[in-house]
Amino acid sequence: xxxxxxxxxxxxxxxxxISEDRRLRIKTYTFNALFSSITEYLTVLGILLVLGLxxxxxxxxxxxxxxxxxxxxxxxxxxxxxxxxxxSTTSIIESGLSSxxxxxxxxxxxxxxxxxxxxxxxxxxxxxxxxFKDVTFFYDGAEKxxxxxxxxxxxxxxxxxxxxxxxxxxxxxxxxxxxFYDPTSGELFLDEIDLKEYELQWLxxxxxxxxxxxxxxxxxxxxxxxxxxxSATDAEVEKAAELAFAKEFIDELPNGxxxxxxxxxxxxxxxxxxxxxxARAILKNAPILILDEATSALDNESEVKIQKAMEQLSTDRTxxxxxxxxxxxxxxxxxxxxxxxxxxxxxxxxxxxxxxxxYYRLH
Length: 363
Fold this sequence. Notes:
Blueprint: H1 7-61, H2 66-107, E1 130-137, E2 147-154, E3 159-164, H3 170-177, E4 185-190, E5 193-194, H4 200-205, E6 207-210, E7 219-220, H5 221-226, H6 234-243, H7 247-250, E8 260-261, H8 270-284, E9 288-292, H9 300-314, E10 318-322, E11 334-339, E12 342-347, H10 349-355, H11 358-362
Parallel strand pairs: 3-10, 3-11, 6-9, 9-10
Antiparallel strand pairs: 1-2, 1-4, 4-5, 7-8, 11-12
Helix pairs in contact: 1-2, 6-8
């Protein structure tokens, strides 16, 4: 915050939350105090009534015995004790009702995008051919499309590279393939079947995704790599780490693969986190591999090693690479250049260099 000179702004936001919390607490405590006061008042009034009327009927009228008066007094205590305890639990009840409201709001949330009823779950793995047909997509509330009129075929087993300036639509293409979003218009096919037909779990089991920031969970390094395939053996986990050139630094840690990581892998460098994420993708061994700036946090030496591992990993699988370092995609079967959500150039590295267009300028 200090680096961005945001201390005053964050203080105002914090004070706003504190003021709202104070208002709600005062409201709750006022209600509790009022309820407790009324309860105490009724308790005292009830005791006075029982003793007064009991004394009148027992002593003056002689229609009640002293034992009956004592019994009424005792029963009155049994009646008031739960009421007094209830007054102390009103804040708990109110808090519980508020929590239940929030819980049901989460439980009632409809997944986006929704999965169709009785979705398709193929027995075999996906082959990996992907087709975009006139695909246009708008984010909620956006006036301009993130991608527009995309027509693209990615052959099974081929490598496609997406390049272009920031905001060109590259990450949106990835989000559509993984079905984090559905096209606003147009169709998207996997192995000649509309993506919407597939079960989401099956679809995402067939996709390995390595993002620009390798996300790590709380747990050990071994557990984080094994998220790629939960049934993997320790030997398979360690082999995946070796292929991702992560084993060399893991072995130097105090507990090796059983070293616990903080939230989001805070104890590791950016390059180390990314290599663990790549090891996870290697272990998953899905037919479709998506690399979103997967080597951006690596030094040159590590990047060379990872590129060799990626070449092995990309064999016989559909690979989609987003890259700003154009040196990493020279061997891609097809390179598309995106700008303002549209494909403006398409071809191999040599073909695009010969055109001397946008790719040549970026290169």
